[in-house]
Amino acid sequence: MDFRGRVFLAPLTKGGNLPFRRLCLRHGCTTTMSEMAYSYQVVRRSKTELALLRKHAEETCFGVQIAASKAPDAIAAGLAAVERGASWIDINCGCPIHDVVRRGMGAVLLQRPAHLGRLVAEMVKALPVPVTVKIRLGWSEDDKNASDVARIAEESGAAAIAVHGRTREQRYSRAADWEWVARIASERSVPVIGNGDILTWYEAEDLWQKSGCASIMIGRGPLMKPWLFREIADKQAWEPTAEERVAVYRQLAMFMKEHFRDDAKGRERAMRFLPWHFEFFCRYRPLPAAQWREAAKAHPLMQTRMEAGEGLSVLEQLLRDPREEVHGKIAGELWDSVDDCDAVARLTAVAAAFPPVSGEAGEVATAHG
Fold this sequence. Notes:
two-stranded antiparallel sheet, disordered C terminus, 2 domains, alpha/beta, 18 helices, 46% helix, 11 strands, TIM Barrel
């Protein structure tokens, strides 16, 4: 496993489901990661948690991220992931949510670097695949210890370190600090993977070069436009029409139909995910480099409010609609459609029943740790 020169799909809670990862693969992604799995739940053979370790045959370079506080659980979960085809195991040391932190996992490990070091060392010794660590800059603005944490992780045997350029306290409320990411990349000899606020191919290029990172990791960007991987590879934007985006979204629905099965129970399970994806899909806006590249250097486009737009087709207005009930209706019609043309016709009819709302698209919501 070579951790250099890659664009990683970040571990995305809920969003990083197997069908969505397949969609990203179809649009240029080569390196995928699972949703975060609780190691203690894997040890207990939880069906829900074990399902997170499953990969598709198309995922030839697939890593599993686990949340752990105890080495025996982490090792057992890691072995279970390896049995299912994981190429490497990642330890989450950045997740800020309360349920993870109160169990001594995620971002709380930033406050216990010596314990993290022992955890990494024992996993490296016991697992037949590389072990990586994903960290944030620290617990809070006044407690940024990412340099020390990264050093201890490397000294303990971590094969690579992913750095999300925010603290636990900041969650996603502020722009990622890529100067800190660059600092850590310059200090470490193992590959450092930069993460945070990449929405366009030119932001990826600029931040990658500026930071000197070995690789980059993207999460919320692909949730808005899964074709971002191809844009980064080609160094060129793809600005799909509303009809072309419907085809992309319908492909996700078909992958979910295949994954969850084409029956009433499968539809019910898929509808826990597919409408949710439109909370991100609806935020897509074309951002041509000629107009936005310099602005992105001053402030990340991920954190920039975008106007809803004027003079749009009814289908485009529907796809930009932020309402939850609209997302549910779109998901249902995509599931029932027989082909892309049918999907476009169905959604055009849906648009007539939902007059567009006015206002702006806000910043993208929390997606991963």
